[in-house]
Request: fold
Amino acid sequence: MFIAEKGIDIPAVEVDLRHEEQLGDAFRAVNPRCTVPVLELDDGSVLTESLAICHYLESQFPDPNLMGLDGQEQAMVIEWYERTVVDGFLAAAETFRNRAKGFKGRAITGPDAYEQIPQLVERGYHRLERYMEALDQRLGDSPFVALERFTLADIAAFVTVEFAGWVKMPVAETWPHIGRWHGVVAHRPSASL
Amino acid sequence: MFIAEKGIDIPAVEVDLRHEEQLGDAFRAVNPRCTVPVLELDDGSVLTESLAICHYLESQFPDPNLMGLDGQEQAMVIEWYERTVVDGFLAAAETFRNRAKGFKGRAITGPDAYEQIPQLVERGYHRLERYMEALDQRLGDSPFVALERFTLADIAAFVTVEFAGWVKMPVAETWPHIGRWHGVVAHRPSASL
Reply:
């Protein structure tokens, strides 16, 4: 979604997560953490964290700006990106991966087999609700998540709201400000890729 | 540690975590997430994520550089900061907070009371070991964590290694490259504050 918003064209290799291609030797040689996404730079170095990848792309392709124009704006984008990942996205992953049959023995991303822990299903769901409450309050005060305009923080929050749908959380119906904002973001061409 | 490395002077307010001051009304009015650290800016806006705080301070006080000089360097710092937080620091917190008596009903930071889950003690410990293996491999190839010089990534990793000591993981003895690097970082004046 970040790449689409930038309007740049990067050679892409799909990794078949459904068939656990990320755990195979070929992908492991690229990223031993066995996670996606990965960005390989021209000098061969590899970035495996979304925020690092986006920061690098922002530095190379500054327009349109998606991560803030000055230090304070950038800090606000990082603030909401980090909150969204830790309080929202990881909570959603916790409830989803500890419940879904397809994730038996795969409760955490990466090369190791971690068994599901049933108590985390409820805990993750509750944590995700608390994140949505905070996001809704924020979107009552601000048209977009971090700044007055669309940024990476909106992408992270949008993906987290979509992910919440996987665990049947009725986000847009429950939290009106998120509902309003979600409708706006969902209409961006980058959201339908 | 970041502020000390910058050599800047910021008015500080200590929050008494031992007596749960972070859960009281006064602190909650500043940060409803009930977490530290927090940076209040002159315009009243508040940052509650360490990476956002450091990014803001780096933009205002660029010397000495602690987060990279160009987009690629900065991306490497963010890469290792994020890996350290998610794979290392949060894993250490998971094993520690789910075991220590003082954290009964406080298994996750924030305003909500989450009960300890015994299975997370072992899982967190194992995840932390895997992070240390990856860090050790990295420090076999590079004098410091993200770049050839000391950066924010070293601060995050140093704090995580110290935190691992709380759960009795003998990090410096087990992983020789971490041991070498830890000795270097521990001698910085900022490490003894």
User: Anything to note?
Assistant: The interface with chain B takes residues 32-33, 41, 45, 47-49, 51-53, 55-56, 58-60, 70-72, 74-76, 78-79, 82-83, 86-87, 90, 108, 110, 112, 114, 117, 119-120, 123, 126-127, 130, 134 of chain A (CB under 8 Å).
